[in-house]
Design brief:
The chain has about 80 residues and is an all-alpha fold. It has 3 helices and no strands.
Length: about 80
């Protein structure tokens, strides 16, 4: 894992940063899988998705499918 800067040097600070990274990964993976099941025109790999998502420059078909999949299902189990 490439972590350029740590929040702190105590064991709790390191564990908190690792847990935050793990939670972020799981949520992004869930969102990618849920969106890629829909009708998207442009295929994106998970790596490409994670690079475009924070910069907010995903293709419009991905954005609309993401909004539709999140709006359509009220539960996280979908």
């Amino acid at each position: 894992m490439n972590i350029p800067t740590l929040f702190g040097m105590t064991p709790n600070a390191v564990f908190n940063q690792l847990y935050a990274a793990l939670i972020t990964y799981v949520l992004l993976r869930w969102l990618y899988q849920r969106t890629s099941k829909g009708e998207v025109m442009e295929a994106l790999s998970f790596i490409s998705f994670t690079r475009h998502f924070p910069a907010q420059n995903l293709p419009i078909d991905w954005l609309s499918e993401m909004a539709a999949s999140l709006k359509g299902e009220g539960s996280l189990t979908g």
